[in-house]
């Protein structure tokens, strides 16, 4: 299913996106050395509930997972990169943490992810990998405009990631989003320009470049959800939800001016 949102739905999407961004920034602020991943999950649940929103994850049970997911935020540490299930783990200095969050507010969903290093130790390799995903996301957003195709976005993202020297996994990538979290079209993190769905104003896309330092192969944890690099190398993941507008793309998952709930 591919949805094209109307003016009212786009306004609601902006509120949802700001909520997602505010929660992610607050969880980043609280992610200090010694903080448990289960506390991050609990704090996220509290903020979602206080905002009158609904989690897109807690009851999520797709065919590829061992669902339902049962938690409110994905917490991926070091070699974990996607669908990181919160568990009893205290963050250590230098851990590379990815927080991925999707919520629905007044019937419209938004999805975003951030990667950062916890504590005072800031390994240069980890920072470079995070920066590469951020730069790839910016390139993908710049390529998203009416009349362009999904392949144009994929090419822009993949060009940055390949230039930085990272292998690209093609199993998981970006996606359409709207009244539900995961919709068509699929947006791979590499591709050929001029191919795929033609972008139209009102289309929402969640773009999410992610990489693993030295492999494109994933392995799945015993929890049936958490995806890790097959070699144990570190990973990074950055994501925004954007709306295609008449003259380009608008990022919806930016923090609000106050950082408050919506």
From TrEMBL:
| Entry's EC annotation | 3.4.11.18
User: What GO molecular functions are on record for this protein?
Assistant: initiator methionyl aminopeptidase activity
Provide the residue positions that the database annotates as binding a divalent metal cation 1. Answer: 100, 111, 239
Enumerate the residues binding substrate: 83, 182
Which catalytic reaction applies to this protein? Release of N-terminal amino acids, preferentially methionine, from peptides and arylamides
Q: Where is the Peptidase M24 domain?
A: 15-246
- The residues listed in the UniProt record as binding a divalent metal cation 2, with positions renumbered to this chain, are 111, 175, 208, 239
Cofactor binding note of this UniProt entry:
Binds 2 divalent metal cations per subunit. Has a high-affinity and a low affinity metal-binding site. The true nature of the physiological cofactor is under debate. The enzyme is active with cobalt, zinc, manganese or divalent iron ions. Most likely, methionine aminopeptidases function as mononuclear Fe(2+)-metalloproteases under physiological conditions, and the catalytically relevant metal-binding site has been assigned to the histidine-containing high-affinity site.
State the UniProt keywords alphabetically.
Aminopeptidase, Hydrolase, Metal-binding, Protease
Tell me if Nucleotide-binding is a UniProt keyword of this record: no
State whether it acts alone or in a complex, and with which partners, per the record.
Monomer.
Q: Which family does it belong to?
A: Belongs to the peptidase M24A family. Methionine aminopeptidase type 1 subfamily.
Q: What is this protein called?
A: Methionine aminopeptidase
Organism of this sequence: Microbacterium murale
